[in-house]
Amino acid sequence: MQLGLVGLGKMGFNMRERLRRAGHDVVGYDRNPDVSDASSLADLVAKLDGPRTVWIMVPAGAPTRQTVEELGELLSEGDLVIEGGNSRFTDDQEHAKFLAAKGIGYLDCGVSGGVWGLENGYGLMVGGDKSNVDRAMPIFDALRPEGPREEGFAHAGAVGAGHFSKMVHNGIEYGLMQAYAEGFELLDASEVVTDVPSVIKAWQRGTVVRSWLLDLLVRALDSDPELDDLRGYVEDSGEGRWTVEEAINHAVPAPVISAALFARFASRQEDSPAMRAVAALRNQFGGHAVHKAGPTSGSGSTGS
Ligand SMILES: O=C(O)[C@H](O)[C@@H](O)[C@H](O)[C@H](O)COP(=O)(O)O
């Protein structure tokens, strides 16, 4: 099948390669001419035979919205757009409405697997009309892992369902990573455990907590047993926040995912204003000692 693919970064580049290995005709476009097969989005569209299918794989938010708008001008009735980035599901509903007015179909697809997807395949969660899903199935089949389709692919529901599912997947990812991370810190703090990497490695087989994330932690510890080449500073790109927001919207208790999200925020603080307030209050009511700020640390003083 022929596919236009917009965005050839870490994900899109490998997806083009996997699709080509499966025999698909992929025309890729990226602003970086070194990897692009087309000189512009218009050139990409011109290189495709109708009815066209174009997969978007650019950062969520403004870059995706802009690409959808441009494609809305360039594509024709009967064409299909698949949004494969990490968009918020509410953005998909707007994109679909905008394109539907022009007779252009829309699917949203949550894609999991990161840089490993080229070899392992990508877990896919799709939202949209069944007719469009069926039409793009050769592409989904090439991208998903080998094995039964239902173990690496889901048509989750209407437009938005794919990215809603991926959002929840990522919320779970936050919680799982946080649990492994806390276990790592506790093992490391212990006086009795002397070989932390070996313990974690031993968990890879037979245990209840074995998983791919655990395998990746073992991999990281193989090259840096104390993880001291890194700072404990963790970014987030939105999915965890949206998961917590949706948990609130649906009154679903999500204490683990929320705590994992907030742990990332805490990781970015050199010093915590909230904890300065706790120290100050403890000092106020109980006369408990405080650690004074040094001349270069923090802007506030806890007082005594
Ligand atoms: O399933 C995946 O392949 C990952 O979840 C992938 O989508 C990406 O690495 C995360 O979006 C990172 O998310 P944070 O930046 O929020 O950790």
UniProtKB/TrEMBL annotation:
<dbReference type="Pfam" id="PF00393">
    <property type="entry name" value="6PGD"/>
</dbReference>
<comment type="similarity">
    <text>Belongs to the 6-phosphogluconate dehydrogenase family.</text>
</comment>
<feature type="domain" description="6-phosphogluconate dehydrogenase C-terminal">
    <location>
        <begin position="162"/>
        <end position="296"/>
    </location>
</feature>
<dbReference type="InterPro" id="IPR006183">
    <property type="entry name" value="Pgluconate_DH"/>
</dbReference>
<dbReference type="GO" id="GO:0050661">
    <property type="term" value="F:NADP binding"/>
</dbReference>
<dbReference type="InterPro" id="IPR006114">
    <property type="entry name" value="6PGDH_C"/>
</dbReference>
<dbReference type="GO" id="GO:0004616">
    <property type="term" value="F:phosphogluconate dehydrogenase (decarboxylating) activity"/>
</dbReference>
<dbReference type="GO" id="GO:0019521">
    <property type="term" value="P:D-gluconate metabolic process"/>
</dbReference>
<protein>
    <submittedName>
        <fullName>6-phosphogluconate dehydrogenase (Decarboxylating)</fullName>
    </submittedName>
</protein>
<dbReference type="InterPro" id="IPR006184">
    <property type="entry name" value="6PGdom_BS"/>
</dbReference>
<dbReference type="GO" id="GO:0006098">
    <property type="term" value="P:pentose-phosphate shunt"/>
</dbReference>
<dbReference type="InterPro" id="IPR013328">
    <property type="entry name" value="6PGD_dom2"/>
</dbReference>
<dbReference type="InterPro" id="IPR036291">
    <property type="entry name" value="NAD(P)-bd_dom_sf"/>
</dbReference>
<dbReference type="InterPro" id="IPR008927">
    <property type="entry name" value="6-PGluconate_DH-like_C_sf"/>
</dbReference>
<dbReference type="InterPro" id="IPR004849">
    <property type="entry name" value="6DGDH_YqeC"/>
</dbReference>
<keyword id="KW-0560">Oxidoreductase</keyword>
<dbReference type="InterPro" id="IPR006115">
    <property type="entry name" value="6PGDH_NADP-bd"/>
</dbReference>
<keyword id="KW-0311">Gluconate utilization</keyword>
<dbReference type="Pfam" id="PF03446">
    <property type="entry name" value="NAD_binding_2"/>
</dbReference>
